[in-house]
Design brief:
Strand content: 25-35%
Structural class: alpha+beta
Helix content: 10-25%
Distance between the termini: 37 Å
CATH architecture of one domain: Alpha-Beta Complex
CATH superfamily of one domain: Nucleoside Triphosphate Pyrophosphohydrolase
Radius of gyration: 17 Å
Order of helices and strands: HHEEEEHEEEEEEH
Length: 233
């Protein structure tokens, strides 16, 4: 399922907003250059015991010479802390998974029908642990794959939408926004608009993994701001 038309329409709207800074998108490395970058990268892996572990897959493909990444929009489900969020396919590591990588591959197949068996594992990002000084309730691992064969995406009930998005567009400052989340107090996070405003915004953990990925391949995002609570209940 594609959202390219939607993203392009909202990008056109962003061009006319006077407060938006317009700049050219930097050339994106080829998949060979991404492979080379990860060959030199040594991720920080959390080896301590954690109450829960999860893993996600960052699937990349090249189409018409353009590097693209797979996003999912999670379905809205009561009791799901990630309900409706933009994410990478993935989920909890369970007792049937030999490794977090196996969990990422299993969850990707279950959630979107994409088999990563036989796909090239380009590398792993730093694990995302709990906050410093707190019990590590959840540690999330992220694995980067190169998908060469076209496979139709078939989302299950946990996924509302699936789409490939140009990695180069993630660097376009016109799509960099503040994302507001209300959980008691109103909190602002850095976000990237990848489709419909207010709905298809990459933020939180997915943003952090994207930030790490782009740093590894030598295309860092602009310095992020720290989120602030504005005191509004």
């Amino acid at each position: 399922m594609g959202l390219f038309g939607s993203a392009e329409r909202h990008l056109s709207c962003a061009l006319t907003a006077p407060w938006r800074r317009v700049e050219y998108v930097r050339p994106m490395p080829s998949i060979d250059e991404v492979r080379s970058a990860f060959a030199q990268f040594r991720p920080q892996i959390v080896t301590e015991l954690a109450k829960h572990r999860a893993a996600v897959a960052i699937a990349l493909c090249e189409r018409s010479g353009e590097l693209q990444v797979l996003f999912i929009e999670r379905a809205s489900r009561e009791g799901d802390p990630w309900s409706g969020h933009m994410a990478f396919p993935g989920g909890r590591v369970d007792e049937t998974d030999a490794t977090p990588q196996a969990a990422a591959q299993r969850e990707t197949l279950e959630e979107v029908g994409l088999s990563l068996d036989g796909c090239e594992l380009l590398g792993q990002l730093d694990d995302s642990p709990g906050l410093p000084g707190t019990v590590r309730e959840l540690v999330v691992s992220a694995f980067v794959f190169h998908v060469t064969e076209h496979q139709p995406l078939v989302p299950n009930r946990e996924v509302r939408k699936t789409f490939w998005f140009p990695v180069a567009s993630l660097l376009d400052s016109r799509l960099h926004i503040e994302h507001q989340v209300v959980r008691g107090a109103r909190t602002h996070f850095p976000g990237i608009l990848v489709g419909e405003p207010g709905r298809h915004v990459v933020w939180g953990l997915t943003y952090r993994f994207l930030e790490s990925f782009l740093q590894v391949i030598g295309q860092p995002l602009p310095e992020r701001w720290k989120f602030e609570q504005d005191g509004v209940p």
